[in-house]
Amino acid sequence: MVNKFLEDYIINNIFPLYEKNDLGHNIVHIKEVIRRCFVLNQTFKLKLDENMIYAIASYHDLGKYIDHEHHHLIAGKMFFEDKNMSRFFNDQQRLMIKEAIEDHRSSKEDNPRSTYGKLISSADRNTSIEIVFVRSFFVAHERMPEENIEDYLDYTIKRLSKKYSEENPENMFYEDKVYKQFLVDMRMLLKQPDKFKEEYCKINRIKSRKHKVCEEPGRIDLVRRHHKPTKKSTFQITNVNHKKKFRMDILLSTNNKHKVEFIKIAANGLGINFHTPKELGLKLDVEENGTTAVENAIIKAAALSQLSGMLTFAWDMGMRIEKLPEHLQPNLHIRRPFGEKELSDADMVEYWRSVVAQNCENGESPAHYFDGVAFMDGNKLVHSASFDEGTFIFTSIKNENGIPKFNAFDQVRKTLDNKYFCDLTEKENLKYDKERSKQIRKFFQVALAKIHNTLNQTSKDNNTCEKM
Question: Against a cut of 0.85, is the pTM above it?
Fold first, then answer.
């Protein structure tokens, strides 16, 4: 876990400096690199010092606005000359951090001097076509604003074809499955220039290829949404008055319309504006490797919160089917019974239906869900909780005429009085979900109380800083 005082110092003193950089290397990019550093450190079991990782990733692109070609050296120098860092690191650690920052450049021919250098170099690589397109267009605004869009697209295809070539690819020392898939997708798209240009213009909302680069704003909306890096911007609140009535913007970790609707109903009247990743154009592949539902909720919420800059709520569920032997239990792997591959709703239902049919007497069994929920502010846990839901009957006999309303399993899930959930009215379904709704609402109430306390303290801290 990162030292709280180190994190606070960087958030309030280093992150604001990224407002001077081009929009392709602003705080949104920095937070993504921080996230990737910790993901790769865990995935490859590097066991590196988390404070050093955080410092390296946080400082690595300082100075872009001064000199793009030498920014890695400038950033290393800025870190090494920051006397406050002596409070957190000894001389040997500070030197290693400086060298890692200097070694992060993707264009660097020589290998980094340490594992930390290899980590930051790898974490700095793009892992999403959308991110590449958005960031590159921001950079184009800085370096070639008068270029015609069509000519710029030809230049970009040529540049990226070289960067991501199979013969001489960019350095990547810790190549995980996310990066490998990105390479496959990018290389395939680069072989289709017309489709590449179409996708590039669509993602950046370019209206005409006859325009100059400077005449198309690009995805400035994404930057405005995430631009402020300090604690003050973490909680997005509107309509504040002296009676403390407010509305708070909270990002959900799911795009599932049934779950989103359930959460909105459960939290009705609490003054929350809920947003989904899809609404904000966020795509994130998170490896849920926790051992409990709460741990998985924390992992998902932390990743999205660090990417978006918003307070994020995540909800993870597991399932127990009582008559199944332990080695066949769904537990936390309802959608991934075979490991990495995630099943669709239809395939998931069919798989577990067949398991119950083959292993449970009369092809059915009592079952229940267990839940984990978490609120994260970046990588800081605001609140988490776990609870069990009521018992239902999981049956292998599918109600082919029913339509799932609130749960993908509604056609194979029955109440204790033998009614299929897909046949229940909305009112009846909410009655059966009353306990779960009560738990979710209680969770939000406790979390909001903690957020209020944080807001009050943050406000006091900011007022103190402004007076200094």
Answer: no
How are beta strands 312-321 and 247-252 bridged, if at all? Answer: parallel
One DSSP character per residue, 303-359 reads HHHHHHSS-EEEEEEEEEETTS-GGG--BT-SS-TTSSPPPPHHHHHHHHHHHHHHH
How far are the Cα atoms of 287, 362, 390, 394, 424 from residue 397, in angstroms, in the given order? Answer: 33, 10, 21, 9, 17
State the sign of the Cα–Cα–Cα–Cα dihedral 233, 440, 255, 246. Answer: negative
Q: What is the pLDDT of residues 406-448, one digit of tens each?
A: 788 999 999 999 999 999 887 787 777 788 888 999 999 998 8
The answer to whether residue 203 sits within a structural domain is no
- Residue type at 123? A
Residues 109 and 235 in one domain: no
Q: Give the distance from CA 427 to its chain's centroid.
A: 34
Beta bridge partners of 88: none
Report the 10 Å Cβ neighbour count for 467.
Answer: 6
Tell me the backbone φ, ψ of residue 273, rounded to 5 degrees.
Answer: -95, 115
**How many beta carbons lie within 10 A of that of residue 180, not counting itself?**
12
| Residue 383, phi then psi, degrees to nearest 5 | -165, 150
The total of structural domains in the chain comes to 2
In sequence order, what are the beta bridge partners of 158?
none
- Look at residue 115 and tell me if it is in a domain: yes
Question: Does residue 62 sit within a domain?
Answer: yes
Around Cβ 304, how many Cβ atoms within 10 Å? 24
> Helix, strand, coil % (nearest 5) of the chain?
50, 10, 35
For residue 35, give the nearest of 120, 135, 134 by alpha carbon.
Answer: 120
- For residue 169, being part of any structural domain is answered with no
- What is the CATH number for 310? 3.90.950.10
